[in-house]
Amino acid sequence: MAFQCVQPAVPTLQVDDATARITRWDFQPGAATGWHTHGFPYFVVMLTDGVLRVQTEQGETAVPLSAGQSYRRAAGVEHDVMNGSEHPIAFIEIEVKDPAGLRTPPA
Length: 107
Hints:
This is Cupin domain-containing protein. The chain has 107 residues and is mainly β. 0% of the residues lie in helices and 47% in strands.
């Protein structure tokens, strides 16, 4: 079942090169990303305290997270993420396209 999204979350692409894609996501209360699947493993770092409501085919989970807290996920899981907080939240998402590229300093 899909979230009743008030409005879409707002992605701001910060880096997109051969090594990584880094996106800042800003969510008003009730905003959601929409169903999607990552083609690469990724990390999320919270910029604010908040509750992420995450839907997968297995169901929905509410995940309370603090500013500075992070987690990682493997590629390939279809999901939707909604702000379950009563205030705006934001996080940085880092998708790793080529781990070997992380050993080389950026130009």
